[in-house]
Amino acid sequence: MKTLARPRDKAEIVRRLKEIRPESSRRWGRMTAHQMICHLSDSFRMVLGEKPVSPVAGPFPRTIVKWVALYLPVTWPVGIPTMSEIDQGRGGTLPGDFTLDVARLEALLDFVASEPRSFPWPSHPLFGRMSDAAWLRWGYLHMDHHLRQFSA
After folding, report:
1. Which pTM was predicted?
2. Is residue 110 part of a domain?
3. How high is the pLDDT of residue 59?
4. Does a structural domain hold residue 33?
5. 3-state secondary structure labels for all residues of the chain
6. Is residue 2 part of a domain?
7. Per-residue b/e over 62-75, b at no fewer than 16 CB within 10 Å?
8. Who contacts 23 (Cβ-Cβ below 8 Å, separation ≥6)?
9. What tens-digit pLDDT sequence spans the chain (152 residues)?
């Protein structure tokens, strides 16, 4: 299973990130490529506690949803709503300079994936408490999902 904890997997994500251009077309969803970059940065800011996000209740127990999302060998489906605080149409960070926003995302990715960790992992809004391994798996899968959204 791919994870940001593995240097090879992290390098693959960074390489794909660098393929994204402001004019990259989306395969699904409403975000532009630049908004997607800001959304991913916001999600890492959430991990660092810099962007508070409200918990989300779902119809299934958190442990089951977390296990299915993180460990079942399928790609994440399209159209899953996100928390309003990191939704580009509502409370997400607005795009600025594309090159600078990509560099900020890469720096956040490096910081979250680096060891030793200098921050505590928060509770995930949907999955609840997660281990280092689960957070780094989530980080890989979340980035992979949105990079696939733009064919990268």
Report:
1. 0.94
2. yes
3. 67
4. yes
5. CCCCCCHHHHHHHHHHHCCCCCCCCCCCCCCCHHHHHHHHHHHHHHHCCCCCCCCCCCCCCHHHHHHHHHHCCCCCCCCCCCCHHHCCCCCCCCCCCHHHHHHHHHHHHHHHHCCCCCCCCCCECCCECCCHHHHHHHHHHHHHHHHHHCCC
6. no
7. beebbeebbeeeee
8. 33
9. 999 999 999 999 999 999 999 999 999 999 999 999 999 999 999 999 999 998 887 767 788 889 999 999 989 999 888 888 999 989 999 999 999 999 999 999 999 999 999 999 999 999 999 999 999 999 999 999 999 999 87
CATH number assigned to the domain comprising residue 69? 1.20.120
- Using alpha carbons, list the distances in angstroms from residue 137 to 1, 71, 113: 8, 9, 10
Is 17 inside any structural domain? yes
Number of domains in the chain: 1
Tokens of 142: 């979340």
d(CA 20, CA 112): 21
Domain housing 100: 7-149
CA–CA dist 145, 76 (Å, integer): 6
